[in-house]
Amino acid sequence: MSIQLQATKKQDPPDEETPRIGVFICHCGANIAGFVNVEEAAKYASSLPDVAFVQKNLYTCSETGLREIKTAIKEHKLNRVLVASCTPRTHEPLFKSTCQEAGLNRYLFELVNIREQCSWVHMQDPVRATEKAKQLIRMGVARVALLEPRQEITVEVTRKALVIGGGVAGISAALSIAASNIPVILVEREKELGGLLRDVNKLYPTLGAASELVDEHVKKLQKAPLIKVMTRAKVLNVSGFIGNYKVQIDSAGEQIEDTVGVIVVATGARIMIPNGMYGYDGKNVVMQTELERRLKDGSFSARSVVMIQCVGARVPEREYCSRICCMTAIKNAILIRETYPETEIFVVYRDIQTFGTLYEEDYRRARELGVGFLRYGLAKLPAVDEGGVTVYDELLGKNVRIPYELLVLSAPLVAPEGVTELSKMLKVPLDANGFYLEAHAKLRPVEFATDGVYLCGCARWPCDIGDAVYQGRGSAARALIPLRKGKVYAEPLYAEVNPNVCRDCRRCVESCPYSAITTVEETVHGYQRTVSKVNPVLCKGCGACSVLCPTGAIGMKHYDNTLIMAMIGKAF
Amino acid sequence: MSTVTKQPRKAEKAEEKAPATVFEPSILAFACNWCSYAGADLAGVSRLQYPPNVKLIRVMCSGRVSPIFVLEAFKKGADGVIITGCHIGDCHYQDGNVKAETMFKKLAEVLRVLGVEPERLRLEWISASEGQRFATIMTEFTEKVRKLGPLLSPEQIKAQETGPAESSDLKELVRETGVYQCIECGKCTGGCLMARFNPQVSPRLAMKNFFVSYFSHKQPLKLLSMDEVWYCLTCETCHYHCPAGVDFAKFIVWLRSEAIKLGKTGTPTHGGVMHAMMEFQALGLKQNRLDWVDSSAQVDEKSDTMYYVGCLPYFEPIFTETGAHPLAMARNTLKILNALGIKPSVYEGEVCCGHDLYWTGNIEGFKKLAALNLENIQKTGVKRIIFSCPECFYTYKILYPQFFKTVEVETVHMMQLLDEKIKKGELKLGRLEGKFTFQDPCRLGRLLAIYDEPRRVLKSVKGLDLQCMEEIRKESICCGSTHWVSCSSYTKQLQKYRLGQAVDTGASTLLTACPKCQIHLSCAAKDLKTKMKIQDYTEIIVQAMEQA
Ligand SMILES: Cc1cc2nc3c(=O)[nH]c(=O)nc-3n(C[C@H](O)[C@H](O)[C@H](O)COP(=O)(O)OP(=O)(O)OC[C@H]3O[C@@H](n4cnc5c(N)ncnc54)[C@H](O)[C@@H]3O)c2cc1C
Ligand code: SF4
Ligand code: SF4
Ligand code: SF4
Ligand code: SF4
Ligand code: SF4
Ligand code: SF4
After folding, report:
1. Candidates B64, B78, B92; nearest CB to A559
2. What is the ipTM score, two decimals?
């Protein structure tokens, strides 16, 4: 056991050699040299500790410039390189590769930005711009002297995927992945596949039968030998990380264990049952699913129908819009008016949310077909009695009572049972409503922050079939990147826990956005301890854990405190 | 080599006369790799001009900016520090900027108490497309800091560059701490609180290693692992057990000061902020350390009795999340003193006593603080100093005279004062039901043998049922950390063991008399989800006073 020491003065490089730093200062034509006295900066650089070689380049990134770096590394036995030029955001990879070509580890390189952040922004004051360039070089030298060689991390990816949830989204994802010749395990907890669509009659906007769509999908699955469908199945345990997830699945009593490279979450949603609301009884006051069933088996007979929208949605307990209910109500209203023209229908709504061209068209059609629409507000909710709904019409400024034989409640989709359990198992977050939370709503909508776990369909938030399908395919496309490459690479900029000073407080575990930290139990000289451990493949090097750790146990590779403190020490 | 001109800032004077030459402030900016650094690049590409006073350090995320970076920047000469990151909701790492914001609030409070004007530290969100915003903010900030003037004078910055600490005379030290006398009986290791939980710890072996290193290699640290140098709690249990009177803990202080010279410090807890904050106090800025004094409290600048508060105003913002309330101790102490008819002075120029710097081997840092405190005592002419913190008390009473000519002043710990006043019937205490147990602070107990006073004081509260833990007084178990280094699974086990003993007494509250015992044990209780309530004893006294 040895406590990892934080060097306050200077840390010896691991190879025990003293640093021999080469400093290359770029003119960038007149871009830098026009405002910074490169000559003076170079002279100053050569006076700095550990600097063995200094060169000015007209264009460091040109063929000539790069060749000069390579030659100097060899001729002057340089073991660290610093280039003072432009932003690392564009040129760092190029210079790093140049070092590598000359046999120097690419992480023994540092770039100092004296163009974007010096010559170009202090054009009026060349004297002080030069002064600042010198200070920046001094800070860079302090840092590069302490850098250690590092290797990129590579992980093999098991070419197999697990898809959890057998609704249209999950099926679409499984089919797309298998189409790339990659085996898939599709886990569905019910007896049959199809998800919510099992309870749906006809579909908007096509009015095809839902059962046909499900059958079509199932047929495709049967024709895909690479997909192993497991129904009445449950994921019992998941461990590991991208490329190597060990999964344990129980299917109707039979347990299997397997390794997969990626996991797609497609667990969909369920409808909230409006118990205790508007006299819900399942007979005369029913949900949209019950109406769909009656329309499907022909048992529908009501001569007057009222539908109440947003039952339990867009209220303080459930602020979101469930997105599919307006369309479902309009679809069913149209179906009824067409099949049973004598039946009167009123839709009692708060706002009609029919996005897109096709759905707005349906809304217009429903109005044409004589479906009545009455608006209510949260301040005065509709009152239901046996046989009638009283709605306060804001325009009329008075109550209107509409009789009904069948009252249909449009309740929102909510997160299905078991999400908390599964989200813990996968170490992925849920939003306030229990839906899964993607990494970024716009930039990374079908994946989690944790590498190798993806999501699609209603598991993310309520959506229609079209969305579910293309999200399913989208998530598959994302998942196929590591699956097809067969490898994932990670930059070696990760956090590392010094187990000798970790006290298992788990602040780091809770704060890591990528679930990169887990706790491990170990025995050291007969002493049992629980400490945190970072998975370098999952860690993105943000450094938050290292700041939060109360004991100072977490160091950051390539961005450690010592390196930053060394720069601060030379900044003034 | 810098063209920056700095005007010295008088430590005790708030306003500055306008300097004749234009003051060029040094500004350090931290920028996250993904948004703000790119924003700065865009400012460059668009040729948007801003003052060259600003220097940038790239970090992966604004959440990576450790408070120690900011403290270090101010110490080394920054007049302003700005942390920049992605806008909330846009963080490349989900919510690193939210973490940065939380950290920033704590840090700002610590800096405010230290006497760094809040305007010198800034947090801004700048996206990759906001080049103009970057340039504008940097210009504005530079101008604002320019108006504030320099934070530190060149002399104040220079004074921090201490040369190598004078090597203490080894022979003298060996004699003083008695390491020569060691008969290798192993009782120190047998009694060592750390060795109970960390099987590799052995003070006896450490001494042996030292001797062999010193005599065979002429390098006192050669055979010592750095663990051996830094694990020690300096609880002095070994000293108490040693038949030969060896003071190992004192000896370890010397080993540490040698290790520091080799650049090998231990792992400081809380990101090194604790030690940095202590060193910062030695710079002589005008602190804001008295904001906590309630208007109802009676203090008298001219009093010949001073209440020495210590680092409580700094601990407060840093440790509230553990459930500890360090400043409550200060407020309660004033209440008790007032009830006793004492109107003490509390002194803004007070600085940290230096206890922690001493025990981590930073003797130079310790001496600077001690000198400032002793100078203050002379300046204010107080006759008596009352302490609520056992460590400050010990440091003034025992350590200061070891390094400086003693100042004529009476030092009293609250426990002693309370004991005396209660005996004389000068403090009326009411009834307070409840089962309590008491944690002997090592500085008050093992190091100063003040064991009976706290017990008498607590027992004088009618109804208070004081239960004894299994190991008390000289055998008392340390709270887990004395000077903010090497907090680990081993110290957690120690704390678990101690909290277990407290639970076993049947008490519902563990009373502490040292702010650090309160902090560390609260931290452990929270970690371990123990029900035991940790409370400073002054709260009980004040409650009992209110019942009278
Ligand atoms: C009444 C009604 C009418 C609708 N009408 C239309 C329409 O006309 N047109 C249209 O486009 N959309 C319609 N929709 C919406 C449509 O049903 C959804 O868009 C679609 O079903 C979403 O598919 P999904 O795969 O994301 O989720 P789901 O269909 O919910 O499928 C999720 C599957 O995952 C399974 N599962 C859940 N948790 C687990 C677990 N832990 N382990 C294993 N399996 C699990 C579930 O059993 C389910 O089979 C309607 C919805 C309702 C409620
Ligand atoms: S390295 Fe950058 S600064 Fe130098 S010439 Fe190339 S673009 Fe210009
Ligand atoms: S550095 Fe960031 S990503 Fe890496 S383990 Fe720490 S918190 Fe997680
Ligand atoms: S935050 Fe630090 S001490 Fe706490 S578990 Fe993580 S590494 Fe260990
Ligand atoms: S002072 Fe305490 S921790 Fe240090 S060696 Fe002695 S008994 Fe052990
Ligand atoms: S107890 Fe004292 S005599 Fe015994 S080994 Fe320890 S230091 Fe030596
Ligand atoms: S016990 Fe808690 S408060 Fe004390 S040093 Fe350790 S982490 Fe910090």
Report:
1. B64
2. 0.92
CA B407 to CA B421: how far, in whole Å? Answer: 26
Q: How far is the CA of A381 from the centre of ligand 1 (A)?
A: 29
The SS3 of residue A557 is: coil
Residue A7 has pLDDT above 60, yes or no: no
Chunked into runs of 10 residues, chain B (548 residues) has average pLDDT values of 40 48 95 95 96 97 97 97 94 92 96 96 96 97 97 92 63 79 91 90 89 81 84 92 91 89 89 95 94 93 95 94 94 97 94 96 93 91 96 96 86 97 94 95 95 96 95 93 93 96 96 97 95 95 94
**Contact call for B263 and A124, based on CB within 8 A:** no
Residue ranges and CATH numbers for the domains of chain B are: 24-158 (3.40.50), 176-261 (1.10.1060.10), 269-418 (no CATH), 429-547 (3.40.50)
Would you say how long chain A is, in residues?
572
Beta bridge partners of A254: A251
Give contacts of A 286-315 with B, CB under 8 A.
none
DSSP lists the bridge partners of residue A23 as: A54, A82
B183 CA to centre of ligand 3 in angstroms: 49
B78/A503 Cβ within 8 A: no
Nearest chain A Cα distance for residue B272, angstroms: 8
Q: Give the integer Cα–Cα distance in Å for A28 and A551.
A: 45
| Ligand at shortest distance from the CA of A272 | 1
Ligand 5 centroid – CA B240 distance (Å): 10
Surface of A (83-102) touching B: CB under 8 A: 87-89
What's the distance, CA A312 to chain centroid? 29
Give the integer Cα–Cα distance in Å for A475 and A263.
10
Q: Determine the Cα–Cα distance for residues A191 and A181; give it in Å rounded to an integer.
A: 27
Residue B55: name the closest of B85, B25, B96 by CA.
Answer: B25
Q: Which residues are CB-neighbours of B94 under 8 A, at least 6 positions away?
A: A439, A449, A513
Q: In this structure, what are the phi and psi dihedrals at residue B116, rounded to the nearest 5 degrees?
A: -95, 120
Residues 6+ apart with CB under 8 A from A276: none
Kindly report the number of other CB atoms within 10 A of residue B320's CB atom: 14
Per the CB < 8 A criterion, the answer to whether A162 and A247 are in contact is yes
Q: Give the residue carrying structure tokens 């860079």.
A: A140
Quick check: A544 and B197 CB within 8 A?
A: no
Residue A533, min C-alpha distance to chain B (Å): 14
Domains and CATH numbers, chain A: 1-150 (3.40.50), 161-269+415-487 (3.50.50.60), 271-414 (3.50.50.60), 494-556 (3.30.70.20)
Note if the bond before A225 is cis, omega within 30 degrees: no
Rounded to a whole number, what is the distance in Å from the CA of B103 to chain A's nearest CA? 9
Q: Do A547 and B66 touch (CB under 8 A)?
A: yes
Pairwise CA distance, residues B232 & B204, whole Å: 12
**Which of ligand 7's atoms lies nearest the C-alpha of A550?**
7
Q: Do A136 and B55 touch (CB under 8 A)?
A: yes
Query: How many beta-carbon contacts under 8 Å exist across A and B?
Result: 213
Q: Is the CB of B247 under 6 A from ligand 6?
A: no
Q: Read off the pTM.
A: 0.83
* Range with the poorest average pLDDT among A156-160, A346-350, A428-432, B233-237: A428-432
Scan for tokens 């005008």, then name that residue. Answer: B286
Helical residues (DSSP H) of A114-167, grouped into ranges: 126-146
Which of A308, A362, A360, A369 minimizes the C-alpha distance to A338? A369
Give me the helices (H) in B28-124, please.
36-45, 67-76, 96-114
Q: What are phi and psi of A81, to 5 degrees?
A: -130, 135
Residue B27 contacts A where some CB pair is shorter than 8 Å = no
The C-alpha atoms of residue B537 and residue B534 are separated, in whole angstroms, by: 9
Can you read off the two tokens belonging to residue B250?
Answer: 């004192």
